[in-house]
From TrEMBL:
Keywords: Transferase. It comes from Gossypium barbadense. This is Acetyltransferase. InterPro entries: CAT-like_dom_sf, Sec_Metabolite_Acyltrans. It holds the Pfam family Transferase.
Length: 183
């Protein structure tokens, strides 16, 4: 099976300064999730039929996705932040989300020769789908040094796969889909 080829890696920041201020303390339910991995969900679409003038002007779809992501982060400032810790005098540590607009990971990749049917036809998810996600294998506590949100857009032969990895400390299933629907 074909390998995934990296096209570009960028950091997308919120389009305004609102995302660069504030601190959100974690509660005991949030802290329970520090040792588990990021939530990963993907969306599979057929290749969009773009007007001819879009095709000649580079990859407008990727540009549009980055721009709309930046605007969506305005309403979700904690996703553009990082986890942080505070050392207390009694030798305990507390975690919080630093809404510092450090940005989210945005990867554009291609899986040459992989079609939609390769993904949806088998009974089990093919192993290549794992490589359609960024931030694989990270535990949530690593959100201190890694983005809390990672998006990977993978071009397929006849489609596009949007893979989203989000730190489970800052989002549960409902808020995860609220973010994706808002984007």
């Amino acid at each position: 099976m074909a390998a995934v080829r990296l096209i570009s890696t960028t950091t997308v920041h919120a389009a305004n300064d609102r995302a660069s201020s504030g601190r959100i303390e974690l509660n005991t339910w949030d802290i329970r999730n520090l040792q588990i991995g990021y939530i990963q969900k993907g969306l599979l679409f057929p290749k969009p039929k773009l007007p001819l003038h879009f095709k000649s002007s580079g990859n407008m779809l990727i540009h549009h996705l980055k721009t709309s992501l930046s605007h969506t982060l305005h309403c979700f400032p904690l996703l553009a932040g990082r986890l942080a810790t505070t050392q207390h005098e009694d030798d305990t540590i507390s975690f919080f989300v630093d809404c510092n607009n450090a940005g989210v990971l945005f990867i554009h990749a291609a899986a040459d020769g992989v079609t939609i049917s390769v993904i949806i036809k088998p009974v089990y998810v093919p192993s290549i789908v794992h490589s359609f996600f960024s931030l694989n294998g990270l535990d949530n506590y690593k959100g201190i040094t890694h983005p809390l949100l990672g998006m990977q857009i993978t071009d397929l032969a006849d489609g596009i796969f949007i893979g989203c990895s989000i730190n489970h400390v800052v989002a549960d299933g409902a808020s995860f889909w609220h973010f994706l629907n808002s984007w």
